[in-house]
Write a structure and sequence with these properties.
The protein is mainly beta and about 300 residues long. The chain has a single domain, classed as Jelly Rolls. Helix content is about 10%, strand content about 50%. The strands form five sheets. Strands 1, 14, 15, 16, 17, 18, 19, 20, 21 and 22 form a ten-stranded antiparallel beta sheet that branches. A hairpin with a 6-residue loop joins strand 2 and strand 3.
Length: about 300
């Protein structure tokens, strides 16, 4: 590496870790459902503010439904439809490219009575909440793909669901400061993205292969997750698509630095938090998602 190349590499935020994921395994629904557990809640100290990410693939018989009423509290959920369509009793028609934003906050009952309309692939991300917002009233928003601002440059289509990319700014629907961008690149195209130094983040390729610049450039492909280096002076990530192009999701969010405790669908900072929200659910004091209305 010559001196110019070294200076350029040091000016970007590379990858700290690349993890090759296992193939999809049996999901909780049963036959017709497989999943990859991309992020494990037991590793939150490293992954903060991200608690869990599941990559679900569903292929049920026509008319077969999945899910049932269950509670959530103390965190936020970002559901992204990668491909396919599904009809949900609470959330309506979910199509490829749509995102569901839900702040569980003080507690909400999620019906998730889902009827996949053919093969379906969704990503469900759980993120922690800032301490001051953890027990806010729950809220929900369904954002259709066609309403999401797009950064378009030669060979680049970057759909900005929240945060910023280039000159595009998208208002946040989460209490957690975060960025989420769906990036599609033509073969060999270079793409740069700013990520605030205080944000932890990762790249999750959906198609193709990428070269992620850094002091030691690393290749990243579908079936892997690449965690960004810690912030510091470098806030730019630079991606180069492989010879067949690439599609990659960038998730980044501000570290909260507050330990969490979890129990099933509940997240808190103390065991007392978990007892309190569990009791609220048992006593029927949590609203349903269908009662929340659309957050603006």
């Amino acid at each position: 590496m010559n001196s110019k190349t070294r200076r350029e590499a040091q000016a970007v935020r590379g990858l700290a870790n690349v993890i090759t994921l296992p193939p999809p395994g049996p999901g909780f629904i049963g036959e017709g459902h497989t999943a990859i557990h991309v992020i494990d809640s037991r590793e939150f100290a490293h992954n903060d503010p991200f608690i869990m990410l599941a990559d679900d693939r569903v292929d049920l018989a026509p008319g077969q439904r999945a899910g049932g009423p269950h509670p959530h509290a103390g965190f936020e959920i970002v559901t992204f439809a990668v491909e396919g369509e599904a009809r949900d009793r609470d959330e309506g028609l979910l199509r490829a490219g749509d995102v569901l934003w839900m702040t569980a906050g003080s507690g909400v009952v999620h019906n998730e009575d889902v009827e996949p309309l053919g093969k379906l692939r969704i990503l469900q991300l759980w993120t922690t909440l800032p301490s001051a917002s953890r027990w806010m009233a729950p809220r929900f928003a369904h954002v259709a793909r066609e309403t999401v601002p797009v950064r378009q440059e030669p060979g680049v289509e970057a759909r900005v669901y929240t945060g910023a990319s280039g000159t595009i700014r998208t208002p946040s629907r989460t209490y957690l400061p975060m960025t989420m961008v769906d990036v599609r690149l033509d073969p060999n195209v270079v793409f740069e993205q700013e990520v605030p130094a205080s944000y932890n983040g990762f790249l999750y390729p959906l198609e193709g292969e990428l070269l992620v610049d850094g002091e030691t450039p690393q290749r990243l492909s579908a079936g892997q997750i690449g965690w960004l280096e810690s912030g510091g002076a470098s806030t730019t990530i630079r991606l180069t698509a492989g010879q067949k192009g690439a599609r990659v999701l960038l998730y980044a969010g501000e570290r909260q630095g507050v330990p969490i405790v979890t129990h099933g669908p509940f997240v808190g900072e103390t065991r007392a938090d978990l007892v309190r929200v569990s009791q609220a659910y048992v006593e029927g004091r949590m609203p349903r998602v269908s009662e929340l209305g659309q957050a603006r």
